[in-house]
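Morning. Coffee machine broken again, so started the prediction first thing and wrote up yesterday's gels while waiting. Chain of 404 residues, entered below exactly as on the submission form.
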Amino acid sequence: MGSWRIPCRGSGKGDLLTRLAVVISRRAIRAIALKRGRVVWAAERAITTESGPGIALSELASERPRGTRCVRVALETDSCQVKILHGFPRLSGSRLQRAVSLQPHRWFLKGPTALVTAARWSDRSTALVAAVESGLLEEIVDGMEHAGMEAEWFSPVVCCVAQVLPDGTHERLAGQLAEEIEVRRGALQTIRRRPRSEEALRPASIPALQALGDRAPEWVGAYAAARTRPAIAFVPTALQSARTRYQRRFTIAVIAAGIVAWIAAGLIYGSRLHVESTRARAVIQRLQPEVNEILAAEQEMGKFDAAFGTVADIDAGRSRDLELLATLSRALPDSVYLVSISCADRFVDIAGYGIRAGAAIAKLATTDGIEDVNVNGPVTLELRDGVSWERFAAKFTWNPETSQ
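Came back before lunch.
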């Protein structure tokens, strides 16, 4: 096993960044780098039982193209388990992942360590599920950290291959086996494994791999991982915990930022209010003498208005009284004289003497401007200077508007 570089011929069109992907199996690691859709670097390292994938990843990291730190990791069939479940109860995407993660041994073979699972719907009734041993995934993550690389995602290689192949049935080389996969609209429909045959996928099916020669079919998985984004991806347990902590910290940070923003807004509003209040008080203090003079003048004007109103009321009342006296003089005969007149608003009480008091009151009731005439007490007979006089008292309502 070795490594080699292929020069990038021509400018081409496509991705301007170099995409680095590795395919990890139990026996070897294959790495490939693509730039503008062309293979610019490919390498392969064997994995020994004693060293594990750490040393192989370190060797590949020392030879990788410059500026490629993020790596897309695809796991071969002997490193992970992939199944297609037909007729699975319809659930949401998050509930499907939760259902598979809670009961992984219901669909996958038991291993010595816990399983990390991933799941996604292929169509309305078909679910694509996958699992990998947590210990293997953590070992790969540790090896990449020691090699100075970061994993962009982890995914089964067959899910990546399905996205670069046309619809139909294809064979893919997977170590000593050949996988027969059915692809429809970029999604896996069936997976069948059988012994490796000579009718596997040819290099001509992937033009970009022709430069790798006869071993091009073995690099289809690495090419697909570098070229596309997988349908499902594994998340290591440590990364899940880190994401949970990050989300919790992010939520706390957002809440704290909101509180700080509200406090800052309150402080800014309070400071502006204080500044405006200080300015207003200063303006009021500066204009206080002029304001006091204006208020004093307004008070004096109010007193003048009250005095003028009183005088006007007195004049109006005097004119009404004179008009009332004139009306009474016209209404009462000369043989009647009044001894008292009291007026409260429009209600008038009179008392007097007359030779014929009844006739005087009757005439008073027919006078314009005098309404509701009533006798206010009994009529008494008094003898004065040898003449009989009738004393009477009456009350009525005075309406100057109807008086003529």
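The longest strand covers residues 387-398. Going to sketch it on the whiteboard this afternoon.
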